[in-house]
Description:
The protein is α/β, with parallel strands linked by helices and 143 residues long. It has helices spanning 13-21, 45-52, 70-73, 82-89, 118-121, 124-142, and strands at residues 2-7, 28-33, 76-79, 100-102. The protein has a 4-stranded parallel β-sheet. Helix 1 packs across helix 6. The longest helix has 19 residues, at 124-142. It starts with a strand and ends with a helix. Bound molecules: 4-nitrophenyl phosphate (4NP). Residues 7-13, 37, 117, 119 line the site of 4-nitrophenyl phosphate (4NP).
Amino acid sequence: MKVLFVCLGNICRSPSAEGVFREMTQATTDSAGTAAWHVGKPPYGPMQEAASRRGYDFSDLRARQFTANDFEAFDLIIGMDDSNIADIESLRPQGNTTPVKRLTDYAPEAGMDEVPDPYYTRDFDGALDLIEACAKGLKAKIG
Ligand code: 4NP
């Protein structure tokens, strides 16, 4: 199973989802951003610091942009909000049926329909709480 996490910049939410989920799965994981602004950069410093207080190390990750080829390269694509999903779907190749889900679909008990972007909210711990809950739900579904 190959799972791709996607957000806007690929420096806050999707690398965090990748970094949390890769600790608990045998699946192949990656992350990407719909925008190209931060290509080549490591995850955002304050995000890494909050994650490292919980024992995660995301420092090896580097931002890249989501491409249409990702529909062929991954079995499951997971966006952080509806804007990500719309941007992802706009690149879907004709005939491709790769599922595209919201991360919050995997933690319905949290009652959230998106992962709020901590780049703007500055609530890095709140984002990590939600991402951890969703990663557990995803693990329960796909292993
Ligand atoms: P992300 O957060 O999509 O969770 O990586 C963002 C990071 C940077 C920007 C926007 C969102 N930005 O505008 O630079």
